[in-house]
Amino acid sequence: MATTAELFEEPFVADEYIERLVWRTPGGGSRGGPEAFDPKRLLEEFVNHIQELQIMDERIQRKVEKLEQQCQKEAKEFAKKVQELQKSNQVAFQHFQELDEHISYVATKVCHLGDQLEGVNTPRQRAVEAQKLMKYFNEFLDGELKSDVFTNSEKIKEAADIIQKLHLIAQELPFDRFSEVKSKIASKYHDLECQLIQEFTSAQRRGEISRMREVAAVLLHFKGYSHCVDVYIKQCQEGAFLRNDVFEDAAILCQRVNKQVGDIFSNPETVLAKLIQNVFEIKLQSFVKDQLEECRKFDAEQYLKNLYDLYTRTTNLSSKLMEFNLGTDKQTFLSKLIKSIFVSYLENYIEVETGYLKSRSAMILQRYYDSKNHQKRSIGTGGIQDLKERIRQRTNLPLGPSIDTHGETFLSQEVVVNLLQETKQAFERCHRLSDPSDLPRNAFRVFTILVEFLCIEHIDYALETGLAGIPSSDSRNANLYFLDVVQQANTIFHLFDKQFNDHLMPLISSSPKLSECLQKKKEIIEQMEMKLDTGIDRTLNCMIGQMKHILAAEQKKTDFKPEDENNVLIQYTNACVKVCAYVRKQVEKIKNSMDGKNVDTVLMELGVRFHRLIYEHLQQYSYSCMGGMLAICDVAEYRKCAKDFKIPLVLQLFDTLHALCNLLVVAPDNLKQVCSGEQLANLDKNILHSFVQLRADYRSARLARHFS
Q1: Rounded to an integer, what is the distance from CA 549 to the centroid of its chain?
Q2: pLDDT by residue (tens digit) across 587-641?
Q3: 325 φ/ψ sector (left φ>0, alpha ψ -120 to 50, else beta)
């Protein structure tokens, strides 16, 4: 049986169990093993093993039955014990209920008895207290204070309580009969009050917070309690303002007091608020007055800088103080304190600001013109000037004598930066110092000053001067500086627009002044663009005039009708070379002076006028066969120059002109074929005829017949 038990392993697997049994049985191995396979012996072993298993099963079964019986017996005993415990618990619960009812009954009796005792004791205590007060009152009547409470300095707290009550009683007594005793009580009341305040002061100097709290609690019922608070506030400030930065000192002082005031007074928020009010109305107001009054009348720039700086630092201090408990509406409280300091300065702030900005801007401009040794000329206004402007816009005629500016544009980025910087600072001060209801109106006033001095007095004046400096279109060797004016005016206006968006828009974005500012800006831009367009147009006319002078001076009739047709050595004429060089220079100047679509617009206009000039110029000559080839070479060079414009229309015009020049050299028999080509088919026949007429051999009957 022991051997059988050894064959069981956890977890039990029947196949493995049989396998282990076979290998332990002699003769149970496979054939060819160390012992021959003996099936009989193996069968006998299996039979014996089965019998052993049956015996083991019977034994285990009996053991299980015995354990089940024992378990059932113990379960019955446990159930019986639980029933007994439940009965005991019910009995105990009933006892607890009875005890609870008895306790409640006793407690009710005790409370009733306590109420009765209190009802008896309270009048008794009041009577005792009244007796004591009468005793102390008699001492004042007799004029001699004998009680220890009045003579012992250590009992000042008890004496204060008594004298405070006697003082209230004395106020109800008739003056004619008790004037003397009332006077004595009042005198003692005042003496004790002074002693308590002195004791509070001494405790504060010693740093004894607990003693300060005790004395403050006693003084709370005295009239001099506010004086105690004043003394505390005064002593807190001793040695607190020793540095140059009064605002930082004030913040540190308030932080320090905020930490201890709750441990001393029963109403700490009121005491702290009173301290802050004292600091604002005395320290800060005095400091602000010293800083501003000195420069208010004589130095507007320094006055505005100081006002902005002081107001900013005061509001920053106010923001720090918002962290403290100052009562229900601390925002309004602090705002009123700030207003009380700066009200006299803020009510006329914008007048000072605009006055300073005007004088400063005028000085910046005058200093610039003085550095150029330029006496600023007056630009007319009113009906005559408006009439001149309309005539100039419609006719493009220079009205009045041309002014030689010697290449000076009278525009300065340094001046512009200075004006914009001054205005930026004015906008910042305006934002900080203006009342919210006045902010859009004040910002608009600053903006109008910027428009007046930057846009009108500087940019517009430069444009007017530049327009007056543009020579007439028939001038020779004219220097064209207006494009420099265009370039600088464009750059300046970008800076102006940036300040408009960055600094003005946030101040007026939600007010009716927004539309007014946008309209004013639009009018200024349109006025500037009108003058720029006029100047550019007249400058282009001058460029074309210069080209005319070059062509008139350099182009000879013999260029296109040489005396010796067989001895022409040049590729293109000298006039063409000089015109192309001049055009390329002007194209580069236009590209450098403008940006965006403006470059293409101006180049297209110049290209069209350039084409018209060359077209009309070619119409003035008669062309031999070799001269026609030279004209084609010239136009090819002009076309190459036109490519620099990078304007498709201009290039197309010169392509067509080049095709027209082919009519000057093509064989008479091929004229009709060339005229019907892709580039010439859509042209008016009169244009084609006009070019054919330029041929030297046009009058021959053969040519006229072919073209008719």
Answers
A1: 59
A2: 999 998 888 888 999 999 999 999 999 999 999 988 888 888 889 999 999 999 9
A3: beta
> What residues have CB less than 8 Å from 20, skipping those under 6 apart?
7
Which residue, 638, 657, 658, 650, is CA-closest to 550? 638
Instruction: Record the tokens describing residue 554, joined without a space.
Output: 């350099």
In eight-state DSSP terms, residue 224 is T
The SS3 of residue 695 is strand
CA distance 18 to 269: 94
Which residue's entry shows tokens 């008890």?
A: 158
Distance CA 695, CA 667 (A): 11
Indicate the helix (H) or strand (E) that contains 280. Answer: none
Q: Is 674 exposed, middle or buried (0-12, 13-18, 19+ CB in 10 A)?
A: middle
Q: Largest Cα–Cα distance of the chain, in whole Å?
A: 160
Give the C-alpha separation, 3 to 21, whole Å: 10
Which residue is it, tokens 């006033």? 445
Return the number of other C-beta atoms located less than 10 Å from residue 497's C-beta: 12
Both structure tokens of 479: 């220097």
Cβ pair 587, 609 in contact under 8 A: no
Please tell me the distance from the alpha carbon of residue 44 to that of residue 51, in angstroms, as a whole number.
11
Give the model confidence (pLDDT) of 125-156 as tens digits.
655 565 555 555 555 555 556 555 555 555 55
The CA distance from 366 to 350, in Å, is 24
Are the C-beta atoms of 182 and 173 separated by less than 8 Å? yes
* Cβ neighbours around 167 below 10 Å, total: 20
3-state class (DSSP) for residue 623: strand
Nearest one of 214, 243, 226 to 278, comparing CA atoms:
226
